[in-house]
Amino acid sequence: MGLNTNQEATIMGSWRKKMRVKALKPILWSLFLISLGSVLCAIAINGILIPKKFLSAGFTGLALLIHYLIPVIPVAWLYFVLNIPLFALGWRYVGRRFFLYSMAGMVIFSSALQWVQFIPEIQDKILSALLAGILSGAGAGSILRSFGSAGGLDILAVIGLNRFSIRLSTTSLAFNAVVIIASAILFTLDAALYTLIYIYITSYMLNLVVTGLSQRKAVFIISRQWQDISQGIMQEIRRGVTLLQGQGGYTGQEEKIIYTVITFRELSRLKQMIRRTDPNAFVVVNETLEVMGQRIGNQPHW
Asked: Do 195 and 55 meet the contact criterion of CB atoms below 8 Å apart?
């Protein structure tokens, strides 16, 4: 029996509603990540950096530098104005979606700088630099886990990652050398060193939050039980295997070298399986910068 017009309209309406909800979820999640990260960064800037007269990383550091020299101009407005030229680069080199989310991120971040005024009760300057770095790194990483950024150096870092495979933290540290030098010249060497501690911790936390447990490991395995180990990787770990032809330098015997790429969380299971199969296996585990691939790839979604 066929459906009447009212039933068809009801089904179509329900389907459209589900599709709208499905499309809305990633948007809301990205906006939540941007908002959370902006609040954490604002606490670090307004609550620690400004009271301690530290500088910051990237364009936030430039905004703070101008603010210290001309205190009547708010940091939030300086950050907003300085970011305007960068969005042309974000549109051209990264993509429309990243551009739109970054526009929203810049507005949210600037608003957080203007309105979030929580000041942690910490007197020691080294502890202040450490806490500010943890908050800023976690906040910036949270923002970059979304589909956009908060503008500023994030845009340049993402362009560097996408076009030249330069790590986010590498771009950040290289750019921020200028900030540290300016801090040493215009203020004191102590302020520059505290800023350096802050920037280093921020970069470390940023990499930890963005890559985290999604980091991939490239593994080389040499074993006479290569067939059993290969089967174990494919069946237990459920990862692909490539067999390379090798030759022992001393014995001259031909060897099979197993090559596979796994996640950080799968590494312990792989090592247990190898020890169980061949305790004498020779295993080399390498870090990876990024991996492209449908099942194992960990490239960001920008």
From this structure: yes
- Contacts for 157 with CB less than 8 Å, ≥ 6 apart: 166, 168, 171, 172
Burial zone of 294 (CB within 10 Å; 0-12 exposed, 13-18 middle, 19+ buried): exposed
Lowest-confidence segment of 15-29, 146-160, 172-186, 210-224 by average pLDDT: 15-29
| DSSP code of residue 289 | S
Q: How far apart are CA 261 and CA 73, in angstroms?
A: 51
Look-up of token digits 């305007």:
84
At residue 278, the 3 state secondary structure works out as coil
Q: For residues 228 and 156, what is the distance between their CA atoms, to the nearest angstrom? A: 46
Contacts of 46 (CB under 8 A, 6+ apart): 75, 113, 116, 117, 118, 119
Residue 7, classified by CB atoms within 10 Å of its CB into exposed (0-12), middle (13-18) or buried (19+), is exposed
In the three-class reduction of DSSP (H, G, I as helix; E, B as strand; rest coil), residue 47 is classed as helix
Residue written as token pair 């150096």? 153
Which tokens hold the place of 193?
Answer: 């060193």
Tens-digit pLDDT profile for residues 215-243: 788 999 999 999 999 999 999 988 999 99
Residues pairing with 184 in the sheet: none
**Where in the chain are the domains?**
8-210, 215-287
CATH architecture of 215-287: 2-Layer Sandwich (3.30)
CA distance 133 to 194: 10
**Which tokens go with 302?**
């920008």
How would DSSP label each residue in 103-131? HHHHHHHHHHHHH---------HHHHHHH
CA atoms within 13 A on the CB side of 289: 9
